[in-house]
Amino acid sequence: MDEAPTGRPKSELVLAEDERAQLLRWARRAKTAQYLALRAKIVLRCAEGGTNKQVAADPGVDQSTVERWRARFVADRLDGLQDEPRTGRPPSILLDQVEGIIVATLESTPGQDTHWSRASMAKRTGLSKSTIGRIWKRFDLKPHLQDSSKLSTDPQFVDKVVDVVGPYHNPPEKAVLLCVDEKAQIQALDRSQPALPMLPGMPERRTHDYLRHGITSLFAAFNIADGTVIGELHRRHRAIEFKKFLVTMDKAVPAGFDVHLVCDNYVTHKTPEIQQRLARHPRFHVHFTPTGSSWINQVERWFGLLTDRLIRRGVHTSVKALEDDIRDWIGTWNENPRPFTWTKTADEILTSLADYLARIAPLDSQAREN
Length: 370
Known about the structure:
Layout: H1 17-28, H2 34-47, H3 52-57, H4 63-76, H5 95-107, H6 118-125, H7 129-138, H8 157-169, E1 175-191, E2 210-223, E3 229-234, H9 239-252, E4 258-263, H10 272-279, E5 284-288, H11 298-311, H12 319-335, H13 346-369
Parallel strand pairs: 1-4, 4-5
Antiparallel strand pairs: 1-2, 2-3
């Protein structure tokens, strides 16, 4: 005698071609509402013949979730995957309209314009500008913003990331690790009129125009162990000035310690004269960051603090006044230095980059085809 089947019987599920095509679109499109993408994937997997338990294991959902959407699809087909009507005022915007707005925002432009605005999208869809704004906010779309990015083309990218980031986590013994770079052409700027002070409800106000009084360059070395900074100012930015800064660092680091420098690939760091100087001082070891990857050098973060807290809003009537302020700021910093906490390992950085490249590969192929 045959054994009785165990478990709850599953509904028979067979897809028509047009249903399969729509489910695939929902499942694969990056900005489909996540709940709808999940339901589409569940139904597609069910149609392949998997049990409810097997289907639930793939996306990591409860078996009852699979049972619900299998039954809903068998009963109502594609419409069954939408949320059921709730009591009260019905939604005024259909899910397909929302998806159309998202797809248009991501995959098209309005005529000759480079990006969509709320007004142009409202005109296209017939919805209000405030509705478009809410939809964009819900899906974190900001077509008016543009960020900058550049992938390193350094053929030794992996080796250099490991060479730089490794010492961040495991500093060499009996050595000082300094992140070194130059902040070149810092301008001594004087506003054409005095600034108006901040008042309650009103920020400080400055004129948009200014007077230039010359430039200087700051050579800085950030000690990753204790956060102290060795700084030196020069009116010019050449290999000869960098050589002088090497002498300054040599004097600042106690004898008996090796000196490891993290530098970028700027030409002044690699001239024959610099290489000869380093060869004569074997306690110096240089770790070059990958081309186009200055973010990996911790001194760049310190430069950001200097810019935000002193340079950007500073008023200086001469280069000397600017240099005096920079020296004073560095002196104050070194009275209470703060090292940065570097958390990313080389493997994590490389994995993140690989994931990013995998995400943009289809977009890059599409751009090349167009």
